[in-house]
Amino acid sequence: MNYQSHKFDKRILSWCLYDFANSSYSAVIAAVIFPVYFTTYIVGNETGLGDLWWGRAISVSMAFVAITSPFIGGIADYSGKRKSFLFIYTYISVFAVASLSLIEKGMYFEGFILIVLANIGMEGGLVFYNSYLPNIAVKEIQGRVSGWGFAIGYGGSILSLIVSLLLIKQGSIFLVWLSVAIFFGLFAIPAFIYLPKDSCKKDSIVSTAIRGFKDTIRTLKSVLRHKEQRRFLFAYLIYEDGVNTVIVFSSIFAATSLGFKTEELILLYLIVQVTALLGAFIMSKPIDTWGPKKVVVLSLILWSFVSLSAYFVHSKTAFFIVACIAGTGLGTIQSASRAFFTQFVPLGKESEYFGLYAFTGKTSAIIGPLIFGHMSTLYGSQRPAILSVALLFILGLFVLSGVKAGYGKKDLMLN
Predict the structure, then answer these.
(1) Burial of 135 (0-12, 13-18, 19+ CB in 10 A)
(2) Pairwise CA distance, residues 377 & 372, whole Å
């Protein structure tokens, strides 16, 4: 790689634009508008049934991605078809999101199937998207490039939410899902043009799959033997569970427990995205200089405080304040975690390793939403479920503190 430390070339720009594209899905479908629409209108959430079905949809899709990602990643590396896999997963999500415009009240099973497919496409595609980071940026700037991706992604969230708000005001909510599909599909295109090309290997699909499977098993054994990699992934498993649960249920909590209306939710999330964008940009350089470990630790302390505070919140104003504080650490913890794991990845094994990274992150996304949904149904309140989220951040912080890796430039200079 012949990249200078601050060379923002077409490959880096197109990589960041993919985050800009998929953030429309993250904001509108996964986090703010569709979860509330599905739980309260399509299913009905008076007894927590909507929470239960939404939790099931997220957990099933994450389980599929978690189980298949390490092996699909191995196949992608061995076959040299990483970009092809990224394309397939991306447009599965795009077409499933577009199909949500056909869902009507009471069609909760059809909605369940479509959101499972959409989430598989979105989350599965991230395996291959993340794996390009070591190929487009030298080690010294991977932290800030990771931060740039998340920051630009928040810009995509803001723009897609503004478009959605205008459509909702016109009474055309079904067009919201179509606008997200168009947004995602359109801005993802530069990645398929400028990211490194697939290699042309002539092996059969069967032999490629077998070799990819064997390589993945070998990689998994290697990671499990490596103490620091193993410990990092265990910590990531725990605290990412908390992050995923907050993303999936924050808007539902605001609507159900605090009475937020759709327009208020969009305004809240817009403000959160602005604070997240600022946080991601401000902390992108410290990820390289301080080291990703210190940045993740600070983020987990912040998130522990936020989740415990949310338990006691009973007013919209207080929730606005808590959400804005949370936003400053949202992109930071995700970009720093990605940069942290990149330090473990050997050349030529990017998709395999990020398949394992996805396996860990998506496995965590199975447990948290299920716990939240069942606790909400069991107690008839979402507040007890919030405490379980706070516990995940605290436990993750405890495990991560023992990882002897994730150092930055200052630490390396001292050593």
Answers:
(1) middle
(2) 9
* pTM of the full structure: 0.74
Q: Which residue has the higher pLDDT, 272 or 164?
A: 164
Q: Is 195 left (phi over 0), alpha (psi -120 to 50) or beta?
A: beta
Q: Which residues contact 33 (CB under 8 A, 6 or more apart)?
A: 164, 168, 173, 176, 251, 262, 265, 266
**How does DSSP assign 178-229, residue by residue?**
HHHHHHHHHHTHHHHHHSPPPP-----HHHHHHHHHHHHHHHHHHHHHSHHH
Q: Which residues contact 229 (CB under 8 A, 6 or more apart)?
A: 223, 344, 405
Q: Is 98 left (phi over 0), alpha (psi -120 to 50) or beta?
A: alpha
Residues 237 and 66: beta-carbon distance below 8 Å = no
Query: At how many degrees (to 10) do helices 108-131 and 49-79 cross?
Result: 40
269 contacts: CB under 8 Å, gap ≥ 6 = 27, 31, 32, 157, 161, 251
First vs last C-alpha separation in the chain = 26
Phi and psi torsions of 210, nearest 5°: -65, -45
- The DSSP line for 43-105 is I--TTSHHHHHHHHHHHHHHHHHHHHHHHHHHHHHHHT-HHHHHHHHHHHHHHHHHHGGG--T
What is the distance between the alpha carbons of residues 380 and 383, in angstroms, rounded to a whole number? 9
For the chain, which domains are there? 10-414 (1.20.1250.20)
Q: Residues 342-387: pLDDT tens digits? A: 888 887 777 778 878 877 877 766 777 777 777 777 777 778 878 8
